[in-house]
Design brief:
Strands 1, 2, 3, 4, 5, 6, 7, 8, 9 and 10 form a ten-stranded mixed beta sheet that branches. By secondary structure, the protein is an alpha/beta fold. Helix 3 links the parallel strand 1 and strand 2. The relative contact order is 0.20. Helices cover about 45% and strands about 20% of the residues.
């Protein structure tokens, strides 16, 4: 039975203890890693400005403090995350090259690419889940639909009128929209971009009509009214956006779609380094700066053990394998 995704009491205690220790004490637990003054490279397979980048930078900022060495975000966008995953898989397994994995690279790419060049389950070691972020579905205000039911009806009457943007093939937004189309019968054409920023720019300009991303990227625009919130992919309404109904309550019970992000290391990374990283990440997620930010965006923090993260990835692969097949999601 898969263990709960949320923090267990034991993990919370361990994370709290690590967070309470000075960085020099945490560093002393394993003097061999990280070496003083040596930078840890954390690859984020998307351009700056999107949800994945925001999450990665929030966590690595705290990791720098906790580990006592610089943890640097390195944005390597493009190719559905495959180039970044390949680079990480081929890097020395010494704890100095890590990557941010997400639903696309870990749970969907294996089923839409015949040979991505890496094996998610063999070439990487899961470290820990960072966070689950609500998927939001939004429309440009020019779209003549105020809610999901109206949007679906409009799209069926005008099947060539609506385009939706994504941060790229197999990005979380691409998958969420295809899942929504499969569930509701919504008609919309996928237009992949190189990151959330460029996609959001075209959406705001009205060149694209629909988009799905996480609360960090879209929450402020919805509150300002510059984008129309159509629905959330969560089970319940979000405290930060109480006016937005869920997809489930909009007439499609059982629908749930969230984005998630976590840390992985190359296969062969020493277990003590992996454990050290997991505890440091758990402490970072419990820090006031990160905890408050995630709470503000209705994001659910992780921090669990590598084994729990591996079990979660396996469960997501099983779920998305079926969705990919039914929705006919392809590497465009």
């Amino acid at each position: 039975m898969t263990e709960p995704l949320y923090l267990t009491r034991r993990t919370l205690l361990a994370a709290g203890a690590a967070a309470a220790l000075p960085a020099t004490v945490v560093h002393a637990q394993n003097a061999a890693w990280p070496s003083k003054g040596r930078t840890v490279r954390f690859i984020v397979p998307f351009v700056p400005g999107g949800t994945s980048d925001i999450v990665g930078r929030a966590v690595t900022h705290e990791l720098t403090r906790i580990l006592g060495t610089t943890v640097m975000v390195d944005n390597k966008a493009g190719g559905g995350g495959i180039p970044a995953m390949l680079e990480t898989a081929r890097a020395p397994a010494d704890g100095y090259t890590l990557i941010q994995g997400h639903v696309g690279s870990l749970a969907v790419n294996p089923f839409i690419y015949n040979n991505p060049g890496y094996d998610v389950n063999k070439d990487f070691v899961p470290v820990t889940l960072f966070v689950k972020v609500p998927s939001l579905f939004v429309a440009h205000p020019s779209v003549p639909a105020k809610n999901l039911q109206e949007l679906v009806e409009y799209s069926k009457k005008n099947p060539t009128e609506l385009n939706y943007a994504s941060a790229g093939n197999a990005s979380a937004g691409h998958l969420a929209m295809e899942y929504l189309k499969l569930t509701t019968g919504l008609k919309a054409t996928h237009i992949p971009y190189r990151g959330t920023g460029p996609a959001l720019n075209d959406l705001m300009a009205g060149r694209i009509q629909l988009f799905s991303a996480g609360t960090p990227a879209l929450g402020t625009h919805i509150k300002k009214g510059t984008l129309r919130g159509i629905a959330t992919g969560t089970k319940a309404r979000l405290p930060s956006l109480p006016q937005m109904p869920t997809v489930a309550e909009s007439g499609y019970p059982g629908f749930e779609s969230v984005q998630w992000y976590g840390m992985l290391a190359p296969a062969g990374t020493p277990p003590d380094v992996v454990k050290r990283l997991q505890l440091a990440c758990a402490a970072a997620l419990k820090s006031p700066a990160v905890a408050e930010r995630f709470a503000h965006e209705d994001a659910v923090p992780g921090g669990e053990t590598p084994e729990q993260f591996a079990a979660f990835i396996a469960s997501e692969q099983k779920r998305w394998k079926d969705i990919v097949a039914k929705a006919g999601i392809r590497a465009d």
